[in-house]
From TrEMBL:
Entry-linked PANTHER family: SPORULATION PROTEIN RELATED, TYPE VII SECRETION SYSTEM PROTEIN ESSC
Stretches assigned to the FtsK domain: 127-306
Pfam families tied to this protein: FtsK_SpoIIIE
Keyword Lipoprotein part of the UniProt annotation: no
Chain intervals for the UniProt region annotation (Disordered): 353-394
Taxonomic placement: Bacteria, Bacillati, Bacillota, Bacilli, Bacillales
Name under which the protein is recorded: FtsK domain-containing protein
Annotated source species: Pullulanibacillus pueri
The keyword ATP-binding is assigned to this record: yes
Binding residues for ATP: 144-151
Protein keywords: ATP-binding, Nucleotide-binding
One MF term in the entry's GO annotations: DNA binding
Biased composition (Basic and acidic residues): 355-367
Amino acid sequence: MSVLDLLLGNRNKSKLKSAFKAAGLTRKIKRRGQAKDLEILPTIHSVRYLDKRTEFVFTLPNGVDPELVAKNDYVFKQYLGTQTEISGNLKRFVVNVYKGRMPSQFDYAYTDTDHRLPIICGINRVGELVTYDMALTPHLLITGETGAGKSTQLRSVITQLILSRGPDQLRLVLGDLKMSEFHVFRNLAHVEAVCYNAGELTKQLDWVDGELKKRGKLLNEHELTHISELPSPPPAIVVAIDEFALLREEKAVMRVVEDISAIGRALDVYLVLSQQRADKDVMNGRLKQNLTVRMAFRAADAINSRITIGSGEAAEISIEDRGRFYLKREQLEILQGPFLSVEKARALLKPYKRRGVDSSDSPHKGEYPVPTLNDPLGLLGDSPAGFAGGDDDA
Ligand SMILES: Nc1ncnc2c1ncn2[C@@H]1O[C@H](COP(=O)(O)OP(=O)(O)O)[C@@H](O)[C@H]1O
Ligand SMILES: [Mg+2]
């Protein structure tokens, strides 16, 4: 370590200590006969200068509320700069001060992963692509104000799923209550239906409900823990609904959605729900708890951010930063979601287009391998019959 690093290190340590004090992360101990209390600060264990960031590790004194760290996120940013991020729990925390700014835009490109149901989240602070497997960490909740980037994120998530799995391995039920976002997915080989109202969705979810029951029975009969252990497993089903809160009064929809959230994982049935807020007026607590992966785009205020990710950061995302969000799994991470235009999505999805079938009233509900297609198995091979490549609404 150079002299400069040492000097810098001391300067940064003292900044960090000032932040500890301003954030109230100290413990005061009364001393007999002394006017001033003894103030115990968190212990700084290490400072590392890395390529794209400086990393501090500290632990709190016993008795200091760890929630104060997240609550005072802004204090750390005030002292160490806006590119500061803190993660940790209970006692041990890591502070990262990044050198560059967050990348502001990146374009979606198909990504080959090992995941069975790959979710492409976005790029992180240092430009790495963050992905995960929905088959392992099921059920995704996306929240954020209008214009923050929810529907765009859904578009790239659904497109990636379609490009990653064949129609005999993945079935999609899509809900677009604003009737504005999912046209591009109509009449695709993977798509059971794009539903624009509660009635259509109820019909599709009846089918999903039947699948839950059938698959549950199969698990039971074969004494399996996951449906994919069957010799020829049924396709994964993903139910993705944009602006889900518009369905809050729809009991039939809610019942099936809650069931999927509770038992879907072992049955290979998954949820992706997006809505502006996730408070209990629009989503009951049990359902919310089962949506374990969260993407919080810009929130109206810290309360709404906290409802989704447990802390207030999403309220600090700037209105200009469209597609910026916090991904909450075990840790919280800020990401920039991929931008995929409707035109590009349409071009990518063209090979899966079906001709002359209106998927909204396609009579699936059949046995495996799956329905709605004249030739469900030959479609991706050399039989072009089912695929046209014409425009969707034509
Ligand atoms: N990942 C992104 N990168 C760049 N711009 C984005 C991104 N996501 C959204 N936008 C921009 O923001 C606008 C609103 O996004 P949208 O997904 O419709 O928000 P929401 O569904 O939350 O209302 C889009 O039309 C687009 O111009
Ligand atoms: Mg939208």
